[in-house]
Write a structure and sequence with these properties.
The complex is a heterodimer of chains A (about 300) and B (about 400). Helix content of chain A is about 40%, strand content about 15%. Chain A has about 300 residues and is of the alpha/beta class. Chain B has two domains: about 1-255, 3-Layer(aba) Sandwich (Rossmann fold); about 260-395, Rossmann fold (3-Layer(aba) Sandwich). In chain B, strand 6, helix 7 (about 145-160) and strand 7 (about 170-175) form a beta-alpha-beta unit. Classes of the chains: A alpha/beta (about 300), B alpha/beta (about 400). At the A-B interface, strand 1, strand 2, helix 4 and helix 6 of A face strand 3, helix 4, helix 5 and strand 9 of B.
Chain lengths: ~300, ~400
């Protein structure tokens, strides 16, 4: 059933305002989109965060922004931690110690915690079929520690560990295809989403928590600080990522690919690069080959995605 | 009442690892998350079989690493589960970061540690480097000498960890192979006696309480972190009082009473060996042998290393003429072994001077036999006579130099 904006407007926010996220940060926007969806479905939520921006800015003791039960354990293991809470819930329901209220277990983790240090733990949870939704708030670098590269950082991007120097032009590798990895892992539902496409995102959340078993949604989270763009352009940057096919919106349900929102007009990648300081050096003539390579890879991936989605 | 219960106990020949699983089966925990690692593997294997046969209600989480095992235990414990794990050596090392989270979030997790050395060089045999290496992580640590104690300690561990004045995780250690893979006599209590003894775990707060949402694992800055740490200092020290109380209560259902330390022929002893774990067995024999030869030898077995029972150690040893402290762990670059330096500090802090020597022994599964303990007693007698300790103060027993 589609979620009505009117309904959401009347719902209490499960993440309170007054948290300490930066101006222009998309993370709490995405969290609200996810939590509003599940709340509108009439389901209770238990949430977890690995160490990261969101964790730090929503839980400075003695304050908390979370109006749902929430846990933080460490950087790499939010998935095992919350999955074990789900196992406990299942166990208590089985023993009759708890009423089955169809609680949804949701993790919000950054790309560092997801693509890199936490990958093994997520993979374990998927393989064991523990019933959690993992939402990756993908700002394509370790922003909490000060903009270091991650496995999600795109080719050519400047970060503090892929700096631009006389010899090196930013990151020299493409990012991981983590959705592809999880699909190969046998995950029942995986998707890419973006905060500007809020209806698309919320529909995906609805699907993800309705299926039996683990699910994964990778949400692009443009970071004004790390990507070097003005903080009023977060949502625009999200739209541009989708319109250039740098971040296609699609889902994979039981192995079946579907493109959920197509750009009206596929824009050249260079528009995306021009808009962000982290790619500024790619506009120089000596780095044109990197910009070209990004475009080539985007085109190839888009072709491949369309082929799979047929 | 007590006698009836003791008589009802069933005598079984069990491997040390199976003494753990037998206790686990009887406790019937909510969650067990564990990963196989030699020589702990028997525990995870046999417990999986119990789950497969429906002998326990436990939800078993067959994780992909020890780090995930501890992470799962933390998540389950915060969700109100009685959570357990088992590991050893390298597995415990891999858990390291999350050991601190478990104690910091006050999760009363119970974990069997089948003591194994750390690599490199690779070695799968027993020493206590694993638990000694994690001695300051806020976990209570108790060690077993024999198969019966493996079983008894594990049951008591539940009550110790979950005690409202403690609420900290606990490691129950026993020697890999030496106890873990050998058969020993174990009096197994009836299931209902064990279940009554451990009771039901009632968490103060639960992550699953959706009607009263709580934030677990909040971020602490300089303004609160120290206070939260201070509470752990307080809680673990409470175990010095609670462990003997629970040991007495356990005695009432089993006939076996437990404290923080256990003396053997100590009252009138002049020369004493202080030791932790399975090595106490051979040391006992050496005490008897030396007694037959007229030496007033004795032993002090340390059952609980964290918190360190300084008061009990000083009380037991302060009148002795010479003491050898045995430590089966690798601890590089310190003034001596962990047990030695703690013991020295205990005496120093009470204004007492003692004749203490330190022995590292048995690393990587090297066997230590009674005759070697007898040699140490002879050496101690000499120290007692002359009042002189010939250097070095810290020695390495039975090692090729």
């Amino acid at each position: 059933m589609p979620i009505k904006l009117k309904e959401i407007c009347n719902q209490e926010d499960k993440i309170a305002s007054g948290h300490r996220a930066c101006h222009g940060c998309p993370e709490t926007i995405i969290v609200r989109q996810v939590l509003h969806t599940i709340t509108a479905m009439g389901k209770p939520v238990i949430a977890a965060c690995p160490t990261g921006c969101l964790e730090v800015c929503t839980s400075p003791y003695p304050q908390t922004a979370w109006r749902v039960p929430w846990i933080h354990n460490a950087f790499e293991n939010a998935s095992s931690t919350l999955a074990a809470a789900w196992s406990t819930y299942k166990h208590f329901v089985k023993l009759g110690k708890m009423e089955d209220r169809d609680i949804k277990f949701v993790i919000f983790g950054g790309d560092g915690a997801t693509y890199d240090i936490g990958l093994q733990f997520i993979s374990g949870v998927i393989e064991r079929g523990q019933h959690i939704l993992y939402v990756c708030l993908n700002n394509e670098a370790y922003m909490n520690t000060g903009i270091q590269r991650s496995g999600a950082t795109p080719l050519g991007a400047w970060t503090t560990t892929t700096p631009v120097g006389k010899v090196l032009p930013g990151k020299t590798e493409h990012r991981k295809d983590i959705v592809g990895m999880f699909v190969a892992n046998g995950i029942p539902y995986a998707a890419q989403a973006a905060p500007h496409a809020w209806r698309d995102l919320m529909t995906k959340v609805q699907k993800a928590v309705s299926i039996e078993g683990p699910s994964y949604i990778d949400v692009i989270a443009p970071c004004p600080r790390g990507w070097r763009f003005p903080m009023d352009q977060t949502i625009y940057m999200s739209r541009l990522a989708v319109d250039t096919c740098m971040w296609p919106l699609y889902e994979v349900e039981n192995g079946k690919y579907r493109i959920t929102t197509r750009p009206l007009e596929k824009k050249p990648v260079i528009e995306y690069l021009k808009a962000q300081g982290r790619f500024g050096h790619l506009l120089l003539p000596e780095n044109k080959h990197i910009a070209d390579e990004l475009q080539r890879k985007v085109d190839q991936d888009w072709e491949e995605l369309q082929r799979r989605a047929k | 009442m007590t006698e009836v219960m003791v008589r009802k106990a069933e005598v079984k020949a069990l491997e040390g690892d199976k003494a753990v699983t037998e206790a686990m089966r009887q406790i019937n925990p909510d969650i067990v998350a564990a990963y196989p690692v030699t020589p702990q593997t028997e525990i995870v294997m046999e417990f999986s079989q119990f789950v497969a046969e429906g002998l326990v209600d436990t939800e078993f989480i067959p994780v992909e690493s020890e780090f995930a095992a501890m992470s799962s235990c933390v998540g389950a414990s915060c969700a109100g589960a009685r959570a357990m794990s088992a590991t050893c050596g390298p597995g415990l090392e891999l858990m390291w970061e999350n050991l601190w989270v478990a104690s910091g979030l006050r999760c009363p997790i119970v974990m069997a540690v089948v003591n194994r050395s750390h690599a490199a060089p690779l070695n799968i045999l027993t020493d206590q480097t694993d638990m000694m290496g994690s001695r300051d992580t806020g976990w209570v640590q108790i060690y077993a000498e024999n198969h019966q104690e493996v079983y008894d300690n594990f049951i008591q561990a539940v009550r110790i960890a979950e005690h409202p004045d403690i609420l900290l995780p606990i490691m129950s250690g026993h020697a890999g192979f030496v106890l873990g893979h050998t058969l020993g006599r174990v009096e197994v209590l009836p299931d209902e006696v064990v279940r009554n003894f451990v009771g039901e775990y009632k968490p103060l707060y639960s992550l699953l309480d959706i009607d009263h949402p709580k934030t677990f694992g909040a971020y602490d800055h300089w303004d609160y972190f120290f206070e939260h740490r201070r509470q752990v200092f307080e809680a673990i020290n409470n175990a010095l009082r609670v462990i003997p109380e629970i040991g007495q209560e356990y005695g009432k259902i089993s006939g076996r009473y437990y404290g923080l330390v256990e003396p053997y022929r100590l009252d009138d002893a002049d020369v004493v060996i202080m030791i932790i774990g399975s090595g106490a067995g051979a040391c006992r024999e050496a005490v008897d042998e030396m007694r037959e030869k007229g030496t007033k030898a004795g032993m002090l077995k340390v059952r609980c290393f964290r918190p360190f029972p300084a008061e009990e150690v000083v009380k037991a040893l302060k009148d002795k003429k010479a003491v050898a402290v045995m430590d089966r762990c690798a601890c590089f670059g310190a003034e001596g072994s962990p047990l030695f330096t703690e013991t020295c500090a205990a005496f120093f802090n009470r204004g007492l001077r003692m004749k203490l020597i330190d022995y590292f022994y048995g690393l990587g599964g090297r066997d230590t036999v009674p005759s070697e303990f007898c040699d140490i007693f002879r050496e101690l007698s000499q120290i007692a006579e002359t009042g002189e300790i010939k250097p070095p103060l810290v020695r390495y027993l039975a090692v090729r130099e």
